[in-house]
Amino acid sequence: MRQHQQVLKLQTTGKSLCRVTQKVQAIVAESQIQTGLCTLFLRHTSASLLIQENADPDVLKDLENFFAKLVPEWENYIHSTEGPDDMPAHIRTALTKTSEQIPIANGRLVLGIWQGIYLWEHRQHGQTRELVIHLIGG
Hints:
The chain has 3 helices and 8 strands. It has helices at about 20-30, 55-70, 85-95, and strands at about 1-10, 15-20, 35-40, 45-55, 100-105, 110, 115-120, 130-135. A 5-stranded antiparallel beta sheet has the order 1-8-3-5-6, with helices on one face. Strands 2-7-4 form a 3-stranded antiparallel beta sheet, sandwiched between helices. β5 (about 100-105) and β6 form a beta hairpin. It is elongated.
C-alpha cells in the first residue's frame, strides 16, 4: 500500500465553476497508483468542490443561477467585514462540500462518462485556492 499527497494551487477568475478533472487525473497518473482511492480536500470556506455534469454547460449555469437565488448577496448579513459576497460564499460552501472521494482503477479516476470535478468559486473576485490531493493504493 502506497500513499501520495500533493497540493494543487488553483487561481480562480471569480464566481464560477472551474473544471479540475484533468489536473487531478494527471497527479493520479504521476503517482503510479493503479487501484486505490483519491481524496480531494479544498482548504477554504468560501469555495467548494463538486462532481457534476461535464458535457452540457447549461447544467453549470442552472446551478449557479439556483444558488444565486437561494443565497442572495444583497441580504443584510451580520458578517460583512470582508465584503458583501463573503457571507453568501460561506453559506454556499456550507450547502455544498469541501471534499470528495473517488475510486482509482487501472491508474485512472473512476468517474462516469458525464462526470467532471469542479472547484466552485463563490467569491466575486479571483482567489488562489489550494486543493489537497491524497492518494492511497497500490
